[in-house]
Amino acid sequence: MKYPLGINSISSIASQFETFIIDQWGVIHDGKKGFKFAFKCIEKLYKLNKNLIIISNSSQMKAITTQRLIDLGFDVNFFNSVNTSGEMIYNQIKKPTLDWSRKLGENCFHLFNPSTNNKFIKNLNKNFVDNIHNANFILGSTVDPKFKTLDYVPLLRIGVNKKLPFVCANPDYESVEAFENGSKAICMGTIAKLYESLGGKMYFLGKPSSHIYNESIYKIKNFKKSLTVAIGDSIHHDILGAKKFGIKSLLITSGIHKKRFFDLSPTWNEHADKYFGSSVRPDFICEKFIY
Known about the structure:
Layout lengths: L4 E2 L12 E4 L13 H12 L3 E6 L5 H10 L9 E4 H10 L4 H4 L4 E5 L15 E2 L8 E4 L12 H9 L4 E3 L5 E5 L5 E3 L1 H10 L4 E2 L6 H8 L10 E5 L2 H11 L2 E5 L17 H7 L7 E3 L5
């Protein structure tokens, strides 16, 4: 199995693909500002008549994410679709089609950052309870920055003992963003994996699940997996997700994993294999989403 091909720009592979599935954080923006090189790259691909799809593990709804892209300076008319993990989970809870979602029950204990606007649960047909002992399932959206990961353990143990399913709206482990207090931003995927390690059942529909890919590409006419590449900065979500879906992948090395790669001319070697595992090698690596 050969090492990923290091490239200097997306232009090196643009002719090989019709559809580009693009991550947000660490690829086209950092949560506070859009990257100028990403603006240009997206516009160039759009002018080449490429299909451009945003798939994000954000727990936010699609409409909120789309507006945020606009606020950051992106022309959302360039994108064929924008989809989020939060939107997938919201729709599945509201109108369940899967075995696990049909069995959730009515009482939900919601884990979220209390300093943010809790619009996610609006219009969900569930009863939200303040005491986990009264819950039928746990919904994890955003991490409270006042909590460290291990602070969640006592609560999670109660959920495991009660055999509550844990529904994760954002399966990412961490973000390139920092909390307002300056600490590293941990995402709900870290808490969900901890719950799973304690013996609990965890469910998600964002990357690396194929559910979000299937939902995002179904409107693309004559879609071909062989002519599609996923671009992201997370080995565990973007690259693994692409592999599970059966498409090529490109890792942006200046994002989540930037400490593992040299700048400017990133390369994948035996050290990367040892750290990430050879089974999740991307097909290409590039420092930035630049054309």
